[in-house]
Amino acid sequence: MVAIAITRRELTAAELRAAAAKSRDARAARRMLAIALVLEGAERRTAAETCGMDRQTLRDWVHRYNAEGLAGLSNRRGAPRPRRLDREQVAEFVSWLEAGPDPAPVPMGDGVVRWRRQDLRARIASAFGVEFHERTVGKYLAALGYRRLSVRPRHPKTDPDAQEAFKKTSARR
């Protein structure tokens, strides 16, 4: 088995172990320890198994260490995914939320008395052509400051006078 060639020699194995002890990133510390073992002359398989990786993975980390030093042993974050709704679409979404649903039947209105995530998901899909999961709609609502709690829905055709007339008028015992 051929040893891994570590070309960067600014840190010794002892200094790599000290850097691993100070590191707050456990994964990077484990990689530092594996490279320290290689610097001490351990076999690639032994160094990799001791630090919980396979030898090909160790080889990849040695190449990154050679190219970038200790900073190369940390995980890199990828670029954040772009939002699927742009600012104008989010503004229109907020206007829907503030206006409330249209209780008219579906072809002309929304067909509901209060918004649910599944209703909003369907409206977003029809208006913007973007398919979301209901949980994603919930994440958008939470990011916009809306909570799950809402007022009790009230049917638009309720008649308060008819409700008062229907109440029992007999005296209480």
What does this structure look like?
The chain is mainly alpha-helical and 173 residues long. Helix content is 50%, strand content 0%. It contains 8 helices and no strands. It has helices spanning 13-22, 26-39, 44-50, 55-68, 87-99, 117-128, 134-143, 160-166. Helix 1 runs antiparallel to helix 2 (26-39), helix 2 (26-39) runs antiparallel to helix 3 and helix 3 (44-50) crosses helix 4. The chain is elongated, with a radius of gyration of 31 Å. The termini are far apart.
How many strands, which pairing sense, and closed or not: the largest β-sheet? none
Portion of residues in beta strands equals under 5%
Give the CA-CA distance, first to last residue: 96 Å
> What is the number of strand segments?
0
Helix content: 40-55%
Radius of gyration in whole Å, from Cα?
A: 31 Å
- Count of helix runs: 8
Mean pLDDT: 90
Order of helices and strands: HHHHHHHH
- How would you classify the helix and strand content by structural class? mainly alpha
* Low-confidence regions: none
Quick overview:
By secondary structure, the chain is mainly alpha-helical. The protein has helices at residues 13-22, 26-39, 44-50, 55-68, 87-99, 117-128, 134-143, 160-166. 15% of the residues are buried.
Descriptors for this entry?
173 residues; mainly alpha; 0% strand; elongated
Reconstruct the topology from this structure.
Blueprint: H1 13-22, H2 26-39, H3 44-50, H4 55-68, H5 87-99, H6 117-128, H7 134-143, H8 160-166
Helix pairs in contact: 1-2, 2-3, 3-4, 6-7
